[in-house]
Fold this protein.
Amino acid sequence: MKYIQKKNAVQIFETNLARQQANVTEFGEIEITESLVFHFNELKTNPHDTLKPRLIREDLNSLMLLNMNAIHRKSIQAEQTARNAGMWIAITGALCFVIAFILLVNLPGNIANPIKELTESIKEIAAGNYAERVHFESHNEFREIALSFNTMAKKLQEYNNSNLAKLMMEKKRIETLINNMHDPVIGLDENKKVIFANQVALQVTGLQESELIGKPIQETAITNDLIRSLTRQLMVEEPTSSTEKESLLKIYANGKESYFEKEILFIKITPTGEQSEQLAGYVILLRNITAYKELDFAKTNFIATVSHELKTPVSSIKMSLQLLDNEQIGVLNEEQKNLLTGIKDDTNRILKITGELLNMTQVESGNIQLSIFPADPIEILNYAIKAGKVLAEQKNITFDISSPEIVPKIYADSEKTAWVLTNLISNAIRYSFPNSVIYLRIQENPDTVTIAVRDTGQGIAPQYKDKIFDRYFRIPGSQKEGTGLGLAISKEFIEAQGGHISLESDYGAGCTFAVTLNKYSSQ
């Protein structure tokens, strides 16, 4: 029994010794542990050695003392660490308190003050002080708000500086001027919506202001014939011209038939900062020319009446001249014959002038009576050549005629076309030099036939080419006889037949007048 107890004690000691070996933590503890292991092994080898137990006991006391000292030292360190931790906690707490206090005092102001400043600025803007600005340079989170607000205030200031009241006054002044105009005026925006129309325009169209202004012109044109006629050019998708003039419009206004000249203005602007123009709207103008038209009618009737009344006595004078020229009545001496020749020339000139005036009144009144039938251009040209043959022989002028072998017929009024060619050939003879040649050409085109008269005279200066077909126009400095109506009447006669007359001039070398008429087709 005693042996077993001893054996158990040894095992317990070895177990604890192994634990000690595995838990060496202090300086010098390993040497004491190794000494304890050595003495314990010696004791197991020689159990009867009485010195080894005492040595083992001393080793155990040394280990115990070493660990007790370590515990005491670490306890002191722990206390010091606890004191240091408490101090840093106190410092950190105090610092947090100071920061919290600062934030408590300043943060509400940092947030509220900019908002308050912005609110005050908004109130200033609302009161009309558009020079007000906000400055949040130190507040990055409010910088964008400040920039946006200042931009808004600047634009409002620019708008205010433009003087809205003045603009409104100018707008009313313009509206008053438009309403007091005696000619109808209608304004449209770029979308063809009516934005203004004066009282005269409303009276002429027979519409109320509510029926026209603010509505698309297309809607009004559906039910109003006059509006449809006025805006016909605007119905195309993309008008190409900035202005458009048409023939006279006859409108019942002011209790009578009135005449108006229509003009459409295409208003274009260049927006600020851009280079290209943009369409901003349209203005329809109707110029009342009734008074001028009435005067023109009166003039035309007067000229027609006078010309008609002159023809009878002039014809009588011409008949008397023929009787005087008859030798059966009596023989005239040379001086009397010269006087008689001069009277004949003047009489023929007066007859020609009255004939031209009558033709002109026919043109101006719009009552050109045409008898258009298929005609042979060679026959018409030969008739005109015969009419000018005597005048050409007086200046020893010859004709050079060229035409295709087969000349197609033309749609023409033979009488009026022959009159035109006679006038052109007579002019060519008058303005050609003696002993010269006049070239007459007939040219066939795909759908037309052209008859050209070219002289070799002085020609027409470039600055007068566009005016040569105007009524009563004569080239300055010209000493030749004429009323200035022949070419104007010729142009009207040819255009009334669906053709056209043109001029080509080589100043100093002659000019060419070309009459072009439609070709006759049997189909």
Remarks:
- The CA atoms of residues 452 and 514 lie 4 Å apart.
- DSSP finds 15 helices and 13 strands in the chain.
